[in-house]
TrEMBL record:
It is found in: Cell outer membrane. This is TonB-linked outer membrane protein, SusC/RagA family. Residues 1-31 form the signal peptide. The lineage of its organism: Bacteria, Pseudomonadati, Bacteroidota, Flavobacteriia, Flavobacteriales. The keyword Signal applies.
Amino acid sequence: MNFKDLFNKGANCCFAVVFLMCLLMSNQMNAQAVTLEGTVKDAAGLTLPGVNILEKGTKNGASTDFDGRYKIKLSNPKAVLTFSFIGFKTKEVGTEGKTKIDVILTEDSNSLNEVVVIGYGTSKKSDLTGAVSTISGNDLKKVPVANVAEALTGRIAGVQVTSSEGSPDADIRIRVRGGGSLTQDASPLIIVDGFPINNMNDISSSDIESMTVLKDAASTAIYGSRGANGVILITTKSGKDGKIAVNFNMFYGMKKMVNEIDVLSPEDYTKWQYEYALLSQSGTKVASDPSSYTKYFGNWQDHDMYKGLKGNDWQKQIFGRTGEVQSRDLGIRGGTDKLNYNFNYAHYDEKAIMIGSNYKRNNLALALKSKITDKIDVGFTVRYSDTEIDGGGVNEQNEKSSSDSRMRTIVGYAPLPVAGLTSDDVSGDGSDVLVNPLRSIYDNNRQQFRKNFNMLGSFGWELVDNLKLKVDLGLDNFNTLDYRFYGRSTYYVANAPVGPLQGMPAMIMSDGKEKRFRNANTLNYDFKKIMGENHHLTALLGQENITYTTNTVTSTIHGYPTFFDFEKAKNLTTQGTPQSIDNYYSPDDRLLSFFGRANYDYKNRYILSATFRADGSSKFLEQNRWGYFPAFAAGWKISEERFLKSKTWIDLLKVRASYGEAGNNNIPVGQQVQIFQSTPTTWINGVTSIWAPSKTMPNPDLKWETTVTQNIGLDFGFFKNRLSGNFDVYKNITSDLLINFPVPGSGYDYQYRNMGETQNTGFEATINVVAIEKAKYGLNFSFNMAVNKNRINSLGIMNNFGQATGWASSQIGDDYLIALNSSLGSMYGYKNDGRYEVSDFDYVGGKYVLKSGVVSTATTLVGDGSSLKPGDMKLKDVNGDGKVDLNDKTVIGNYNPKSSGGFVINGNAYGFDLMAAFNWSIGNDIYNADKVEFSTANASGQYKNLNSTMADGKRWTNLDPVSGQLVTDPVALASLNANTTMWSPYMRTAIFTDWAVEDASFLRLNTLTLGYTAPQMFTSKLGVSKLRFYLTASNVFVWTKYSGSDPEVSTRRKNPLTPGVDSSPYPRSRQMVFGMNLNF
């Protein structure tokens, strides 16, 4: 073969090879040009906008539009697409041979990649080293309540939420891990979009994106002086890129009173009134007119006419109306990559179950965010709330006397009409007990207006790559206008006014203004370009300045015309006599802070975090002004180690530990120096002055209260996160407690001092289980529990001191004890030993004389040793000295539960969804003051009705039902009471014993919701992306042994040292609402 032939053959072969390569490349080019499209939906069939789609192993990606549609050009016909979206499980899908793929993503509320809001920043859930819990805004919205704080009940381990009573404006008590402060408010710091607020009363749940609770010092130390009792971070909704999205939500419902106090029937009531009159006539207790019974009820011989009568149910007349609740909110969200926005309007309106009690609130919010350039962005948020409260609760905490509690007159009122006794006019009998309940409602009226205006602005600038400056400015104005009316039947007008104005209607008007300004400047830097792939370091430096001012003007007017009611008194103030105009202007509360944080991780395996904050507060003088609060935390993701990488069933296994300090300066301003207040009449050294010194002694040595927290935790996620949760153990020690210390004999009432130490140790657990997870149906559970043990380690120079709730004025005295090595909330009283029987006495000369060796309670019960008799309450001689006196008072109960928590069941199937939320508490006691009040008839208690524990046949009686005379013969008296167990209600004074302390452990089905989401094939034709209807029942049932109206109650809320008192509360109600969610 010559060279030419060889060349030709080679050329042909080359041509063939080139042709084949071109053909292959052409096919490859055609393959690269393949475009894939589809739609992404959730398990309910609703489209998901903003889902990220990434071709695995490349940077080629796309995202779904507002209708959930996507389109992507593939670089490989055998590519694998990854679909990811916050709150949903990531899904991988092969594309070979496909041109269209529709994907269904399932929810993953415990996603390890979920972004969690922390102090001045965010973090992936799996990277947290502190004790942090979150709840989404969607979960909060599922609980239809007036105060969003109630929606936290039973949802987060270590967070205890208690409503003071059942009124729509009831105070909500929140404690994180028990709280550390003693005499000061132990509520957590609440932050909304970086701005501190006092409470959640005026926030709409429809405007909340998420809520995060920071529980240990590693998480809270970044807030320094304000984080000692925990921090709640609320993030409101912001705009999102994409088409305009409109959502409308509404519900309407009804509510009814659940429980009421059982009282005596007309027959038992009148029988007791007759016995009371005879006992008072016998002369051993109180002097009373023996005709006090017959002038109202007739002769005893006619008593049969009261048999079988049905009594007036005054509780039902006052609280028995069908309450109505309605809510509407409208949200509009959308924008572009340059400007996005979110607008929200919410209206809540409740006609409560009590006559005259109503609650209305309107909320407006607008959030704008603009990306000016690739490096600069700005944001602006404005919020406004307008709240009107009519009637208020039945147990106000700022009253001159608890005698003006509405429930007291309702329960104690006569169960039948009696001429001359039961009347709207209280002047006939002169008793302050038998005030007609309707009259009490109108005479104890109140109206409040609250307006809150909040503006927030932010400026962000990426100065260089990964270095970002952020400036936040905020202004918050909060105004309250409070009208409190006292009619003729109130204790106030009978005692406070003097001279001819006494007994005439009065009003107190209070106008309060609060203003808070905040500026925060932060620098964030990510060292990722410097540290390499295995190391990740971020740093934060910041400075913050907060100024808070308050000013309250209170006007008191007495002597309105006797026929004036609330509206007349409010609108015609000139018809009364002005008594005083008090101006309470507090000095500015200023806080200057510097802080920093560094987070480091190695190979996403070993995590370290350090935080430091320095706070300077105007509440302390220069030598003690600055507080320094460091914190350190470490985490180890064991699941990222090589020896566990092969264990595909382990998604996360992380241990973490933290140590940190946080502070508290939650005392009134000006306690370090002498302050004055303006008053109308003040005498100083014989000279009239418009200024009066404060009743609190100044203390120039005041300093920060500090809490040291140690925490060890374990986070886990198994079986593709179908089983996840965390466990935490902690120890918190709060020292240099800010205590309001009594200083008798000094001319002052109190002085704030740093003294004492408290300790909280506990365990928390949260477990989440995804039992069933299918495209059309699913079932999951979440469970949390907490155990917290509180102890007082030191009280400075004291060993103990008592606190009086005051619900019975001064009759009972101190009924709580704060003592070394005990816990806060210790109830202090006598131990009940039943009653004195006839066998405890010798009957000598027509008188009962206590036998030798039988303990006498005469000093405590009747004030002298000669008047004890069979049927009187018997108390235990605790110290064994043969008598019962103040030295026998002891701790008889405690408010703190041994454990508490909650669990939630969520299920869905073919468009239907079901949610049941429970909360529970074990081992907590409640001080049932109503039990004492309405089982005691003392000198001022004639004609007052009693509770059913004192019904005839249950209580001790001295009355012969045949003759209508008092029985004195020992044998006959013992026989008469052989089948009764209770003592006689006839006592000189109310006595607090362990009989009134009850185990209030409970299990409550707090919320039950059944919903249905219409199929998208139907709603899409209407231009609707989601249409859901639901029914929600609240306070469905409570399983408890507690005999009071509800085991979750704390009416003496003004004093943090006396929690868990059930004294004449506004009853709780059961609620049923129907609602709709509509998205466009």
